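Quick question: who can interpret this fold?

. . .
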Amino acid sequence: MVPAADTPKDKRLSSAAFKVVPQAREMRDRIRAVAADVARPLDRGAGLTKPQLQQLGEGLLKHLGEPEEYLGFAMVCIANEFWREQVMAVPFERRLMLLPHCLKNAEGCPADYDEFGLDCRKCGACSVADFKTRAEDLGYKVLVSEGTPIVLKIIVSGHVDAIVGVACLNVLEKAIDKILLAGIPAVAVPLLSSNCRSTSVDEDWVMELIDLKTPPPAVKTRSYVHLMRAANQLFEEPELSRLAPRARSAKPQAGATTPAVDPLVQHETIAYQWLAQGGKRSRPFITLAAYDALKGAPGTTSAESLQLPDGVKRSALAIEAFHKASLVHDDIEDDDEYRYGQQTLHRQYGVGPAINLGDYLIGLGYRLVGRDRKELGGDCAADILNRMAEAHIKLSEGQGAELLWRDAPDKTLTPLDALKIYALKTAPAFEAALYSGIRLAGPADDYEKMIAEFSKTLGVAFQILNDLKDWDGDSDNKLLAGQDVLGARPTLLLALALEGLNGPDRAELLDLLHPKALAAPPVSLERVRGLFERAGVFAKADKLVDKYRAKAEAVADETEPTELRELLYFLVDTVLERQTAPPEPDLHPLPLLQIAKP
């Protein structure tokens, strides 16, 4: 057995360790063979964390006398062996094959892209076609693409239960911190180089993983994917209309692209469509998962073990209804153009109808909880409604403070001022979601302090990350970068800049926030970015995210029972997911599951 030393929880793996794949096939095979020995005694039921995987990889390389630059490759090999049996047990038709576009023939690839990536079955000019044809013949769903946004949607929607992937080590590094958290069994073959053009791979290794097949293993690794899917399915028909019956129409128009003519039906249809629209479903997931955790976490073992009463599901729906209502009103107040990659409601239907649609969703949220007071118990329903009302008030206070600052002539702002607004705007929704799940499982008195502290630190860190994300633009919410500056919003980034700049630079930044200056966004944005960089704003914000992340983990460290503590760790890792660099032109396999801290 390869020796391994303890690894601190906060030890961060340097990305440099992932860069090198052994060029000798003999060495790659030696590492794979030892990885099988390392993984054999691991507890499949407990999950595998990134620090544990790093520890095992370091021990493996020390045992072989090989350099640390192979650590990324070793970690992938160990993770493959950890997941091998569980991938083998998933039927071929429930697997997803992910192939990188950079494996294609760079000299005049004749294949065209369709909505699912390269259509290369009829070509056969490179290994991509060989892998794709073999996988499809077995029943796999196959993606050959340059991006990954669709992958997590496929997983959460319930179409696949395992992944076989090919990617460079740069991409596998990102995967360990990101979509691997979904808990889907996965194996991956690293590309032999990361130059993203006509690279190569051990083709026999890929074919071996494609053909894996065996009866189901006795032990399956716990995963939150079943609860993630449950949260997603709340907003799919016919479940949505079953849990929240429509008052104006018995069921939605099947395949309809436009709302019905009847204005009452039209209003209801738009509201339900918006409730079901986009997003990660983080808040309803928190409610469902917190309830499940205090019931012994049966939902982390299998979909069949999920025990979610309708009252719990409706409370989770209510959390999302409040969230979607706040987004409608927030978009109006900020006059944002896009949400979830499409025009905001007030841009589509006008300000008046959008305000009313937001109000409707608020009422729907309260009704969803109130209607189940007999099932939940009067005290439980009252406690949840009270916590939701408190969250609604705090959110309105935070948004109100932001709007008053935006319209004030004095644009001075301290980091403390910005953090106070963040604590009111973002944390209450997480707090209401977490409290609701815990209270639905039983009395919540012993968790009150934990809920407040954890939600505040998580919410503030999430908002800081969202501010950083605004400078890159995104397809989830706002397609245009720099919208916070153009909207003159009191962000922490701005407060840090005002604090860090002196004299003419600080005066110039304040001048750039003047409405006349903001009327020329290309010039203003570039200059603001330059001033932010001069003040070291982005690095300071990153450090603050790490600080709040550590605080949230410290709260989780003291939380019992174990199932709830593990959920809190999972929330920190997923809600505070970072995009450290532009997406690579590859796909992200899922080499392991990080479910608990050591």
User: Anything to note?
Assistant: The chain has 26 helices and eight strands. The mean pLDDT is 82. Residues 378-407 form the longest helix (30 residues). The chain has three domains: 15-210, 223-376, 382-559.
